[in-house]
Amino acid sequence: MDKIQRGFSLIEVMIAVVIVAILAGIAVPSYQTYLVKSSREAAKTELLNLASVQEKIYLNSNAYTANLTTGYDGNSTGGLGLTHNQTTDDKYTIQLVSDGQSFTLTATPVAGGAQEGDGDISISSNGERLWNGAAW
Q: I need a surface site. Which of 10, 15, 95, 121 has the fewest CB within 10 A?
């Protein structure tokens, strides 16, 4: 009488595990790279939005603000309205350097975070946009 084989052999299970491990080994680093890139793009968008507020302030008061945290009141005083000096996702620290007639906004990756080593992102009043020293 022939026995009916049910289930998987150990070799078949081992092959399936190896295939899953190879796919995970490829997918996980790609996903991490994607997350770093998407956080960088979000930081760029935030810098562009802050630069836009700077231009509104300049139009109303003929000077750029040097203040990141106070709110802009729509007239000639105030700042950029951040609640703290980091991006919304807390992956970059934002710095503002302004002498009233020019400004530079810089986003630096937070030490110890996923973005560490990704490089600084900056935008200035003359339109220069840099990431790691190269134009973006």
A: 10
